[in-house]
Amino acid sequence: MGKHDKYTQKKLQELGERLRQIRIEKGYKNYEQFAFDNKIPRAQYGRYENGQDLRFSSLLKVLAAFDISLEDFFKDGFTC
Known about the structure:
Layout: H1 6-25, H2 31-37, H3 42-49, H4 56-66, H5 70-75
């Protein structure tokens, strides 16, 4: 995986922060328990919250575990 430009890296950081925010809102104090409960590899999910790239299908799986739509996920926490 090559270096991301600054814009892409910023958006990945925002995505990770949004995942962290929702996880906490759903009552999970740590990412490991959320990942374990939802059968997502813990290290992989931890990388998502830390702003590393992820596949769209992986994002859909995480959002399904949160029971949140794509629209609701992206309507908060992202800037243009």
